[in-house]
Amino acid sequence: MQFDDPDGLSRVCTERLGEKAGRQFAAMARRGFRLVRSTGGVQATGQCRLGGPALLEPGTLWPEHSGIPLSLHAVLDTDALAAWLGSELPVRPGLLNFFHLDPDLPYEEYRTLDMFGSEACRVIPADPARAVGTTPPEPARSYPATPVHAAEVTMLPDCWDVEDEDVEFARDQHWGAASRILGEMGDLDGNTAGSHCAFGWPDTSYTLKVSSRDADGPAVHLLQLAEDAELGWGWGDAGTLYFTIPVGALATGDFRKAVAQVLCC
Predict the structure, then answer these.
(1) Phi/psi of residue 188, nearest 5 degrees
(2) Range of the domain at 73
(3) Predicted pLDDT at 178
(4) Who contacts 83 (Cβ-Cβ below 8 Å, separation ≥6)?
(5) Who contacts 121 (Cβ-Cβ below 8 Å, separation ≥6)?
(6) How many angstroms separate the CA atoms of 72 and 43, rounded?
(7) Is 36 helix (H, G, I), strand (E, B) or coil?
(8) Please, which residues have CB within 8 angstroms of residue 20's CB and are 6 or more apart in sequence?
(9) Are the beta carbons of 156 and 86 closer than 8 angstroms?
(10) Cα gap 145→52, rounded to integer Å
(11) DSSP 3-state assignment of 8?
(12) How many CB atoms lie under 10 A from the CB of residue 261?
């Protein structure tokens, strides 16, 4: 659920769920962005873009999986995003380059690779003052460079990312907190799986819990990339690619711990 107005988010939560549960659910809100193409006078946000060359510091090796180069899918300019994210971005990594194994590469070896393993993705930070445009090694794919505007939104989690201890619910009426959220807020839970988003909460499903939890709480959502015919990428039937990172790893700027997951029909 995405809201342009944080006050409206809190109001809707208390109106639908009551004072206590509404405050509990509203407290789970996170700040994020809708990533939209910067066309028709819409200005790009810093160096945020989809596709194009990677922006890497000199000497940075292009990431590979078992000798197969990964594809650069997006670059986020966190300096341009930091003012809105505030404490939700505890480090200033500069530029973040997002790589993933391309399922359409014509490699025979690809059939034996784990598309969902930790080696199938990489998030590489770079200092904007030192970063240079870096083209992928042959025969990796390169997608069209598409500058994007990061529209500020406040997001609530998908009901399936709410645990029973997060939000109060009547046990004689609901089988869990997710059931209550779905029943009271379901008509507002717009499907964002067809869009590109950064930070906040991902659009998820009970078939794949993207925002998995550890001792520090839910993982932090970094990037959601939808199937995109213009750019020429996709992950299965109406697939969506999600990048997340453990809370502790983000706090220390250890983007080696970032992982990617795919959800498709």
Answers:
(1) -95, -5
(2) 30-155+191-263
(3) 74
(4) none
(5) 70, 98, 99, 100, 101, 243, 258, 259, 260
(6) 22
(7) strand
(8) 168
(9) no
(10) 4
(11) helix
(12) 20
- Amino acid making up residue 105: L
Output the domain CATH number for residue 208: 2.30.320.10
Residue with tokens 């839970």: 189
Q: State the pLDDT at residue 85.
A: 95
Pick from 200, 198, 205: nearest CA to 238: 205
Q: Is the residue at 12 inside a domain? A: no
**pLDDT tops 80 at residue 197:** yes
3-state secondary structure of 242: strand
CB 189 within 8 A of CB 155: no
Number of domains in the chain: 1
Instruction: Report residue 101's pLDDT band, with 50, 70 and 90 as the boundaries.
Output: confident
Q: What is the H or E stretch that residue 78 is in?
A: helix 78-85
**Rounded Cα–Cα distance for residues 219 and 7 (Å):** 25
User: Over 50: is that where the pLDDT of 207 sits?
Assistant: no
Q: Measured between alpha carbons, how far is 137 from 91 in angstroms, rounded to an integer?
A: 30
DSSP 8-state secondary structure symbol assigned to residue 233: B
High-pLDDT (> 70) share of the chain, %: 82
- Tokens representing residue 113 in the block: 């690779």
